[in-house]
Amino acid sequence: MSWVRKYSPKTGKEIIGQDKQVSYIADYINNYKKKKKKALLIYGPSGIGKTSSAYAVANDLNLEIFEINASDTRNKEEIEVKLGNVINQRSLFSKGKIILVDEVDGLSGKEDRGGIQALAKLIQKTSFPIILTAINPWDYKFSSLRSKCELLQFNELNYLDVYEFLKKICNKENIDYDNIALKSLARRQVDLRAAINDLQMLTNDGKLTKEDLNELGDRNKSESMMNALIKIFKNSDPIIARDAFENVDEDLDKQILWIDENLAKEYKGKDLALAYDKLSKADVFRRRIRRWQHWRFLVYINALITSGIAVSKEKKYKEMVKYAPTTRLLKLYWANIRYMKRKSIAEKIAETTHSSTKDAVKDVPYFQLIFKKNKQMAESISDELDLNNEEIEWLKK
After folding, report:
1. What is the DSSP letter of 18?
2. What does each C-alpha distance from 216 to 194, 221, 259, 324 come to in angstroms?
3. 64: enclosing H helix or E strand
4. CB contact burial 5-21 (16+ within 10 A = b; e otherwise)
5. What are phi and psi of 136, to 5 degrees?
6. How far apart are CA 276 and CA 264, in angstroms?
7. Same structural domain for residues 36 and 141?
8. What is the percent of the chain where pLDDT is above 70?
9. Band (7; pLDDT cuts 50, 70, 90)
10. Which entry of 98, 266, 329, 397 is 20 to 30 Å from 274 by CA?
11. Number of compact structural domains in the chain
12. Residues 278 and 258 in one domain
């Protein structure tokens, strides 16, 4: 049996690192009839307890839960059929019900056209509380959905919380573990679900050692990436460099971030300037390709970040360099969340004041001052703009 399923939390108290969030969910459901917005949108990185919290709270409140996965139920017709049939039906066992729409991020692309709008309309008709989960709800495509939901952010997990949970599993499964190895495993994953899966995979023989960590998929990914960087940084042959990422299981964005993280450790002076010129051109082309959907030109980006960087140096560098994974991915995620919150607020200001979103973005700092200094005016603005709790808290910071 999967340990993720075996040790999934049964009550809200068993959810780690999200005490306030679990209490908020329970309060939202208990006072659902008084709520203006009939859906709660929970968001945050993968594997930190969003879906588990919905099930745990349902157990605490003795409610039935009906789940659909937005990644599987993607278009308008499917959502209207599957969700439309349950939003007003009584529970099968004559008790209360929660409707869970998981992985709302899965609604995207032409094949899903109308799916988000259909979901937003059904929320207005529901007789039961709806909980939605997403990684990033601040994308423009979710604006109509956000306006119908209360938003609740889940925190990134502390590695010590992950460690304590893994230790509890080891004790229950009689796993003989090296304490340093277990802490290292916890540090590698802020995704608790992935950490549990890694632990189960590594302990088939009933023990966990430092050597076992070398079997992890992330380590293998890193090693593959290290080899790719060596092919680019440590040789001047464009043919060899061109195929550096051929067997690397990372997307283009992450490849560029890896190069950016390590380029200055390897190249110096004029070589570094020339190499960054190639990297910056690749980034410009990447944005244009996405904007105009000319995907056949991706081959030129690969040429720039591999062969282009390889031939930017006059000679090979003999010094040994310890390449490291990029630390920017999680930072970019949270920065993107903050930016999209600001944009969401600006859109509401623009709509109310009949101005452009571009101009409204410039006015956001003034609204922040009001929310920090004048509570009464802030409440009036919140009502006028129909700001949700997440947007109000952001303006207060």
Report:
1. -
2. 11, 9, 22, 17
3. strand 64-69
4. eebbbeebebbbbbeeb
5. -135, 100
6. 9
7. yes
8. 90
9. very high
10. 329
11. 4
12. yes
